[in-house]
């Protein structure tokens, strides 16, 4: 492959970079055990032929296992803790979204597990999509920190 083709591919990849977000819950939200909560995965406008594939959503406690009830989300790695969802991601348009922002989203509703420790936790998501005319697979991961209460 020539350098110019590689450069084109790099350009195409960055042009279609998605940077989806967890639009809800917001950082610092309170999740109550046993109650339902909605995870909204949103992404900016997505030009064809790029294609969404799937998302994985998890709830990972930050409570350390030393019995002290202290929390430290910074020590988390790529684990997803309670696996809440893994499957298709088919976001639809958000009529109220200002142009160029997070126009497409999909809501997923879950029950907060009753056996997760109280304290800080992270809602974690991974998003797999195919970008550009060459359908290059990209996996992005993101999270928000929330508080789990009884
Ligand atoms: C940890 O938190 C749980 C639930 O709030 C409580 O029952 C327990 O006593 C706490 N343990 C310590 C060591 O503080
Ligand atoms: C969670 O998101 C923050 C901010 O994007 C990032 O710095 C951190 O590495 C992520 N943590 C994990 C465990 O993925
Ligand atoms: C999706 O979830 C968000 C956050 O809870 C909410 O504001 C929005 O109305 C929901 N959209 C639909 C179509 O249910």
Please bin the fraction of helical residues. Answer: under 10%
CATH class: Mainly Beta
- Average pLDDT confidence is 86
Low-confidence spans: 5-16
Oligomer: single chain
Series of H and E elements: HEEEEEEEEE
Sequence of strands across the biggest β-sheet: 2-9-8-4-5
Q: Would you kindly provide a written description of the structure presented here, covering whatever features stand out?
A:
- There is one protein chain.
- By secondary structure, the protein is mainly beta.
- 9% of the residues lie in helices and 47% in strands.
- It has a single domain, classed as Immunoglobulin-like (Sandwich), CATH 2.60.40.650.
- The strands form 2 sheets. It has a 5-stranded mixed sheet with strand order 2-9-8-4-5, with no helix packed on it. A 4-stranded antiparallel sheet has the order 1-3-7-6, with no helix packed on it.
- Bound molecules: 2-acetamido-2-deoxy-beta-D-glucopyranose (3 copies).
- One 2-acetamido-2-deoxy-beta-D-glucopyranose (NAG) is lined by residues 24, 38, 40, 107.
């Amino acid at each position: 492959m020539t350098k110019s083709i590689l450069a084109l591919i790099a350009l195409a990849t960055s042009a279609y970079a998605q940077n989806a977000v967890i639009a809800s819950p917001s950082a610092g939200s309170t999740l109550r055990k046993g109650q339902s909560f909605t995870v909204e995965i949103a992404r900016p406008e997505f030009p064809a032929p790029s294609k969404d594939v799937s998302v994985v959503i998890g709830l990972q406690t930050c409570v350390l296992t030393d019995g002290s009830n202290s929390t430290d989300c910074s020590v988390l790695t790529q684990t997803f803790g309670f696996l809440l969802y893994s499957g298709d991601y088919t976001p639809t348009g958000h009529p109220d979204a200002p142009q160029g922002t997070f126009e497409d989203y999909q809501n997923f509703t879950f029950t907060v597990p009753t056996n997760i420790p109280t304290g800080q936790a992270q809602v974690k998501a991974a998003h797999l999509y195919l970008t550009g005319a060459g359908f290059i697979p990209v996996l992005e991961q993101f999270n928000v920190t929330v508080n789990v209460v009884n």
